[in-house]
Amino acid sequence: MLQVKPILAFDDNYIWAIIHPEKKQCVVVDPGQAEPVKQFLAAEQLQLSAIIITHHHWDHTNGVASLVTEYPDLVIYGPSDSPFKGITQPLVDQQTFTLKCIELSFTIIATPGHTLDHICYYAEQQNWLFCGDTLFSGGCGRLFEGTPEQMHLSLNKLKTLPSHTHVYCTHEYTLSNLTFAQAAEPDNQALISYNHTVTEQRNLNICTLPSSIGLECAINPFLRADLPHLSQYIPSEYAKAPQSSLDVFTALRRWKDHF
Questions:
Q1: CATH number of the structural domain spanning residue 27
Q2: E strands of the chain, at which residues?
Q3: How far is CA 136 from the centre of its chain?
Q4: 114 annotated as a binding-site residue
Q5: Residue 240 — pLDDT band, cuts 50, 70, 90?
Q6: 164 marked among binding-site residues
Q7: CA-to-CA distance for 135 and 109, rounded, in angstroms?
Q8: Is 196 marked within a binding site?
Q9: Digit-coded pLDDT (tens) for 154-164
Q10: Cβ atoms of 212 and 163 closer than 8 Å
Q11: Contact yes or no for 220/231 (Cβ under 8 A)
Q12: Which of 4, 168, 197, 210 ranks highest by number of CB atoms within 10 Å?
């Protein structure tokens, strides 16, 4: 019954709209811009009922104030330790809550790394993960605030979700991420095949998301750092003799930052 649709914002952001078609209710994820959301709601004849925020970065939050002005009864869900001050319903790790307006429950997964306040929203009922800038298709978020250890742990949490879980991240970075992924693991046939699919999608301006946990475990080097062969293509200036999966992850992230 429920639907998820992308609302394009800026150059490559996706604001995810979670829709209850019968109730004509909508919840949006990380509205960095208000106008695209307003246009979408008008076109689909939907009522905005709530906003969920994954972290405080401006391109995920700047539209909130304008939307609240238009819809003053909005509940704004987000991390309890966030620097963003617009949150009215703070959330903590492992907390479960229900959006009654769309009849959907989420469990919160704390995923520090990209930022310290980052959380992900997992809807087991629908097999949906809204993961902001923690996990991308073929990649992961830059470490603006957290440490490699934190991000590695955060991604390992997400790896344990069911393989059929749909992954809704918030940027169209897939094709560029796969360029790096193929440099890191050039013999990965699943990755080569996926790259062909994504290239065709982007040539037609088709959204490459959602991905899935199973697919990411097969093609995303940042989820595969525990595999021994992942260290062999890392340039020596980034590797520093990696041994553990954390060492490999740290080297991959350092390499990606300069790729």
A1: 3.60.15.10
A2: 3-9, 13-20, 25-29, 47-52, 75-79, 89-91, 96-99, 104-110, 119-123, 128-132, 135-136, 139-140, 166-169, 211-212
A3: 6
A4: yes
A5: confident
A6: no
A7: 12
A8: no
A9: 999 999 999 99
A10: yes
A11: no
A12: 168
Report the number of distinct structural domains present in the chain.
1
DSSP 8-class letter at 232: T
Is 55 annotated to bind ligand? yes
Q: How far apart are CA 169 and CA 133, in angstroms?
A: 6
Tens-place pLDDT, residues 102-144: 999 999 999 999 999 999 999 999 999 999 999 999 999 999 9
10 Å Cβ neighbour count for 2?
A: 17
Q: Which of 31-35, 121-125, 137-141, 228-232 has the lowest mean pLDDT?
A: 228-232
Q: Is 93 annotated as a binding residue?
A: no
| Whole-angstrom distance, CA of residue 1 vs CA of residue 72 | 27
The parent domain of residue 220 ranges over: 3-257
Tell whether residue 60 is among the known ligand binding residues: yes
- pTM of the prediction? 0.97
Tokens describing residue 109 = 């997964």
* 72 close to 44: Cβ distance less than 8 angstroms: no
Strands 139-140 and 135-136: antiparallel
171 belongs to an annotated ligand binding site: yes
Q: Is the pLDDT of residue 31 over 90?
A: yes
> Which residue, 173, 255, 243, is CA-closest to 208?
173
Round to whole Å and give the CA distance between 162 and 148. 24
